[in-house]
Design brief:
The structure is a single chain. The chain is mainly α. The protein has helices spanning about 1-10, 10-15, 25-50, 60-80, 80-85. It has a domain at about 25-85. It is built from five helices and no strands. The radius of gyration is 15 Å and the shape is elongated.
Length: about 90
């Protein structure tokens, strides 16, 4: 199942998994990335629910926080160690 998702989201994952230099990966970085993804996605959902989807001005935070949350969850769950390190800024450039 993980390989299916990795192939579906390979264009996004390839951006963060590219490079061949050294990187610093810690398991805690992945855990915090997943927690932040849940928080951002929850915040986007809460804003959408409270605005009842009627006010177009509330869609910008929903898109920003929702996109950030989904990207964090995607990399946190199926990304390689290099992608997690790159999100934290400790990956090769």
């Amino acid at each position: 199942m993980k390989s299916l998702f990795r192939s579906m989201f390979s264009p996004v994952l390839n951006i963060f998994e590219s490079g061949n230099g050294e990187y610093l990966y810690k398991k805690s970085h992945r855990i915090i990335l997943i927690i932040m993804g849940v928080l951002f996605t929850g915040l986007a959902s809460l804003v959408y629910i409270l605005s009842e989807g009627k006010d177009m001005g509330n869609l910008l935070p929903v898109l920003v926080f929702g996109g950030t949350g989904l990207l964090s969850l995607l990399i946190g769950f199926i990304g390689k160690d290099r992608a997690v390190a790159k999100i934290w800024g400790s990956g090769s450039k």
